[in-house]
């Protein structure tokens, strides 16, 4: 899905993903191929009507319905790509890149590759001279992410690597001390990685966690404070609400993208330095032992926090679908599959 630069206008070609949008705003993502036809219940569009033409055109199907033709944006690609695990929504991926100050040329470590949505955003941010290294516990998720990333960049990026394993156990084998600029943790128990992350991060480097629930948020923030290696953590969430604008009829949409996850950021202190403590108002009576146990005792699992993950037959189908467009263009050997 390599995009042309602003100074060039590359014609749409066979093998590219495109997005067709009808007058009601419904989007359809297809892969252009000679001889193929896009079917709807209101008519057909031969792919030859699109191949060789610039994006931004309007094509009409055999039923007289018009469709706009564009290459998918990052958001369009992420929300339509095959997924085995829930993706990091574009609104959160954008904040992770911005709040984490992910810059061109940076070395970024990611824990929890999922379906590859955040990896794509990180790779675009670090550019060709940066590096992204992902750690993933489940091999099937690593394969799905690899297919989606290769699909987006028209091939597997040379500056992306993935390790199937626990970041807390393998990060030190992959990176020397103080050689990583940014660490992004999208995982169930990010607090278990802080020792390894602290050794890998450069002084001033940023760690940012994406967690789904309030108990995870609390435990990670308190673990950051207890470590004594990080600045006072900052916590937030983002909610996006669109607006309906039609002449003088201007109002907020009835639906919005509300809570998807919490973001927590902190910076690595220099070795031997103690972070400043935030002044806090005196609290009431301390929490009881039973309350603390109820908050921190239960094991954090995908089922406990309500995470939906594809399993069994569906997961195998997603693994086949991820990267299939490139397989059709550039068939791989059996060893690569």
UniProtKB/TrEMBL annotation:
Residues 71-245 form the tRNA (adenine(58)-N(1))-methyltransferase catalytic subunit TRM61 C-terminal domain. Keywords: Methyltransferase, S-adenosyl-L-methionine, Transferase, tRNA processing. One of its GO terms (biological process) is tRNA methylation. Belongs to the class I-like SAM-binding methyltransferase superfamily. TRM61 family. PROSITE patterns: SAM_TRM61. It comes from Brevibacterium celere. InterPro entries: SAM-dependent_MTases_sf (IPR029063), TRM61_C (IPR049470), tRNA_MeTrfase_Gcd14 (IPR014816). Residues 268-316 are annotated as: Disordered. Its EC number is 2.1.1.220. It is an enzyme of class 2 (transferase). This is tRNA (adenine(58)-N(1))-methyltransferase TrmI. Homotetramer composed of a dimer of dimers. S-adenosyl-L-methionine binds at residues 115-118, 136, 166, 186. The keyword Secreted does not apply. The keyword Methyltransferase applies. Pfam families: GCD14, TrmI-like_N. One of its GO terms (cellular component) is tRNA (m1A) methyltransferase complex. It catalyses: adenosine(58) in tRNA + S-adenosyl-L-methionine = N(1)-methyladenosine(58) in tRNA + S-adenosyl-L-homocysteine + H(+). Catalyzes the S-adenosyl-L-methionine-dependent formation of N(1)-methyladenine at position 58 (m1A58) in tRNA. One of its GO terms (molecular function) is tRNA (adenine(58)-N1)-methyltransferase activity.
